[in-house]
Amino acid sequence: RSxxxxxxxxxxxxxxxxxxxxxxxxxxxxxxxxxxxxxWSIFCFExxxxxxxEEDPSVRSVRQRSLAIDYVMDHRSGxxxxxxxxxxxTFDIGWYDSQLQQDTGEERPSWAVWxxxxxxxxxxxxxxxxLRRLPSRERPFLLAxxxxxxxxxxxxxxxxxxxxIGEPALAxxxxxxxxxxxxxxxxxxxxx
Length: 192
Fold this sequence. Notes:
It is a single chain. It is built from nine helices and no strands. With 192 residues, it is mainly α. Helix 5 packs across helix 8 and helix 8 packs antiparallel against helix 9 (167-185). The longest helix is centred in the middle third of the chain and has 24 residues, at 110-133. The protein is elongated, with a radius of gyration of 21 Å.
């Protein structure tokens, strides 16, 4: 894949040319304040005055990344607020209207989005309890995908659908807790 991309684009990209758009879409006034704080917005692309759908995607991505970095550097004082919002959004703490709007705009039915949020909140306490049951030397292995999820949110933008990297770890931790609860309910047999 990397060899194909090297031959295909004017600039070298190993995997994707979407990184510039992801950065630009999350670093503008629309995502640094208001209802989309910490998220992503198509309105951020208004700052890309040179956008041309015919241009090489690698060139476009480099320009959009540069525009995003310039925006961040010009608005440094807002970084803590935006990063905090990205963490909270990642864990579905607030901005439900904004996240629902984005998900339904990507053709997900609102009932399914809400079902996902409710399921996440049902699993999270079990996950936290399950993590506590693990020996401390094993926790980092289960927490690594959650850390990757957080780092991705901090660098790019946050939304519950981007939590997909860390959700299997949360499910495993919840299963550990459920197994422990089930074991406690089971009557002791002779020889136990």
